[in-house]
Amino acid sequence: MIKKLAIAVAGSAMFSLPAWSQETVKIGFITTLTTPAAVIGIQQKNAVELALEHIGGQMAGMDVEILFEDDQFNPQVGRTASEKLANDPDVRFITGYIWSHVLLASTKVVLDAGKFMISANAGASQMSGESCNENFFSTSWENSQIPRAMGEVMNQRSVNSIYVMAPNYAAGKNMVEGVEATFNGEILGRDMTRWGADAQLDFSAELAKARASGAEALFAFYPGRAGGAFVKQYEQSGLADSTELFTVFTMDGVSLPRFQEANLTGVLGTFNTNYWSPDMDNEQNRRFVADYITKYGEYPAHYAAQAYDLIFMIKSAVEAAGGDLDDMDGIREGLRAADYASVRGDYSYGSNNYPIQNFYLREVVVDSGGRWTNQIVSTVFENMENPYIDQCPM
Amino acid sequence: MILLITQLINGLQLGILLFLLAAGLTLVFGIMDLVNLAHGSFYMIGAFIGATMAAITGSFLVGLVLALPLAFLVGYIVEVTTLRTLYDRHHLDQVLATFGLILFFDTLLQLIWGPVGVAVVLPDYLNGFITLPGDIPIPTIRLLIIAIGLLVAAFLYYLVVRTKMGMLIRAGASNRTMAGALGVDIKRLFTLVFGMGAALAGLAGLMSTAITTEATIGMGNDIIIQAFVVIVIGGIGSIRGAFVASIVVGLVDTLGRSYLDQLLKLFITEQNAETAAPAIAAMLIYIMMAAILFFSPQGLFPPKTR
To answer: Both A13 and A85 in a single domain?
Structure first.
């Protein structure tokens, strides 16, 4: 009798074992870890690792494994890496993606393989409109929302004319479209510069044209390394005396420490727009920013904030599905609920799986410790709808 | 008009930077018949060493002065240890070996300095601009680059045309075997020329960081292609050709970026013109190279004999 009981106990233990100890939540994370653009990817990787620490490395009792892949700032390489992850049956989420052109090159292989795809930065407008997909989510924004907010800011500050500069790729075009959609004044000129691994870093010709145009303000989008080159030449050209600078994705936790190191004091006091800022006052954000600074010695940028949110969002969805990774519908509902503590505060998802959230005006300031950072000045748009939502059939 | 003059000066500055890089490349290719893809690595090494020296001493100009001998030293060591074995090999072997050097140096610098790069801090008097007569504002650093580049060009001209060493260099370029038979220590001459080329490339690299804010891994690999275009247009082995071709390439590139979109707008829609212009502007120098080679297959200033 006792023997029988022992066998029964052992048997039930054997059955229940796989459910709580053998499965792992495998998450692919594609970002840029080489080339000078790696400064962004490293922040995202840091943020993911910090988030894992904060959740104790567990989701619904299962271990979490992150597979980082390097896109080398190159759409083809990013696509190959996505394909590799998509072919792994245990990988359920393929995430990351800094660059819109890398994202667009990778969406088909990932979504056709039946994986969840979550962009932790790239906001290609197509994915929120005509190409939206029930398994595609974003923890960030659609590209044109941030420049739309900036166009509105320039209206409020009664800027009459601007000159526009941006790199010539998917996001650059979205940025230009965005600012032109909301800005009421005159656009006196536009330059789209070469982008990619051999991106143009000498802007002498373009800045001279901006000056000659007589525009009151210069609107620019130069993420990563190009931002430093752009800002430095803006200062050196003397344009700073006559033409105010408004930027998107150029002044952030990735670039400001480098601007400070290079002593580019011209950026202090300039304005930019974003949906998040390191000084946002909520519990999740305070903990994220403080621990990030302690661990990595610098402010996190929005790239890091989105990657940090991503882990908490997946955790909430996996738990909403009761830890059943095969329950695609349950996980999807969990993701759509956005029922987790985001560093940006509460937000919701629109029918195209893009966040409906606030956008803020930020100013570059010196913090109490002497570090350069962003601070929120005002709210530009409250609960902004995604501009392409009507084109999404969902 | 002011815009045109500004753009001409900008183009001149880009050309001068290319010349510093191309001068060494054309001598090495012309005299030693060595295809050195790794020449861009010296551009990067000069920038990293110079930026570090500038950070240590707190002066960009000291960094500039120190970068020259240090880049020379690196070039010297690379020539003696590695490239010397390649002179008798086929061009394909040289391309493979020097491509290996690029990967080696990119990784080595990443190990030493990390993937992020080294920021360059300019003193205030170099960070501003100077207003030229006619109310034309030009960044001071660009004028400095032009001035240094012209000085180097004058020095090279003097060296090659007026000195004994220059005579030997020209002799080596015309006929290596004969020069050696007449008692010229070709090996030593090659090492010196190679080191000098590396020093000039390093100087160019550091000066370029004064515009782009930092020295980064792989920065030389982008510009080396343009330097090859320059030496092919100018005629391989010709310093004069390299100078003329550099200026032409610099001007074509800058003016293309400045005016091509306006030109295209005459023929196609505004939006298409703005998208197409940067792509076509990037191609312009290659189109020009093809056109020049069609009429003059040896370049503008072909070497006299081989």
So the answer is: yes
Nearest CA in chain A to B2: A212
Radius of gyration of chain B (CA): 20
Token output for B194 = 């190679």
**pLDDT score, position A16:** 46
CA distance A350 to A338: 11
A144 vs A129: CA distance, rounded Å: 12
Q: State how many domains chain A has.
A: 2
For B302, phi then psi, to 5°, come to -65, 145
pLDDT score of A13: 47
User: Is any Cβ of chain A less than 8 angstroms from the Cβ of B302?
Assistant: no
**Interface pTM, i.e. ipTM:** 0.83
My answer on whether A259 and A219 are in the same domain is: yes
* Of B187 and A357, the one with more pLDDT: A357
Instruction: Give mean pLDDT, residues A213-231.
Output: 90
For residues A260-270, average pLDDT: 89
Q: Are strands A116-119 and A348-349 parallel, antiparallel or unpaired?
A: unpaired
Here the tokens at position A345 are 């505060």
Mutate to test the interface with B, among A202, A213, A233 (most CBs of B within 10 A): A202
For residue A230, being part of any structural domain is answered with yes
Query: What is chain A's mean pLDDT, rounded?
Result: 91
In this prediction, the residues of chain B whose per-residue pLDDT falls under 70 are 304-306
pLDDT confidence band for A39 (50 / 70 / 90): confident
Domain that holds residue A23: 2-141+280-353
Same domain assignment for residues A236 and A116: no
Q: What are the extents of the domains in chain B? A: 8-218
B26: CB partners within 8 A, 6+ apart: B230, B231, B234, B236, B237, B238, B239, B241, B242
User: Which phi and psi (to 5°) does residue B119 adopt?
Assistant: -80, 145
State the smallest CA–CA distance between residue B195 and chain A in angstroms: 27
User: In this structure, are residues A152 and A177 in contact, taking their beta carbons and an 8 Å threshold?
Assistant: no
At residue B304, the pLDDT reads 67
Interface residue of B44, B212, B221 to substitute, partner A, most A CBs within 10 Å: B212
For every residue of A76-89, DSSP letters joined together read HHHHHHHHHHHT-T
Which of B200, B238, B262 is closest to B50 using CA atoms? B200
- Taking phi over 0 as left and psi of -120 to 50 as alpha, with beta for the rest, B121 belongs to beta
In chain B, the residue whose alpha carbon lies closest to the alpha carbon of A164 is B274
Minimal Cα–Cα distance from B206 to chain A, Å?
Answer: 14
Token code pair at residue B157: 């001209």
Contact B213 A258 (CB under 8 A): yes
Q: A242, A207 in Cβ contact below 8 A?
A: no
- Asked if B213's CB is within 8 angstroms of A229's CB, the reply is yes
Of how many residues is chain A composed? 394
Q: Where are the beta strands (DSSP E) in B129-242?
A: 129-132, 136-139, 214-215
Pair (A234, A381) in one structural domain: yes
Contact B278 A235 (CB under 8 A): no
Provide the pairing of β-strand A58-59 with A62-70: antiparallel
**Would the CB atoms of A228 and B218 count as touching at under 8 Å?**
no
Helical axes A38-54 vs A302-320, angle rounded to 10°: 40
Check whether residue A31 and residue A95 sit in a common domain.
yes
Strand bridging mode B136-139 / A186-193: unpaired
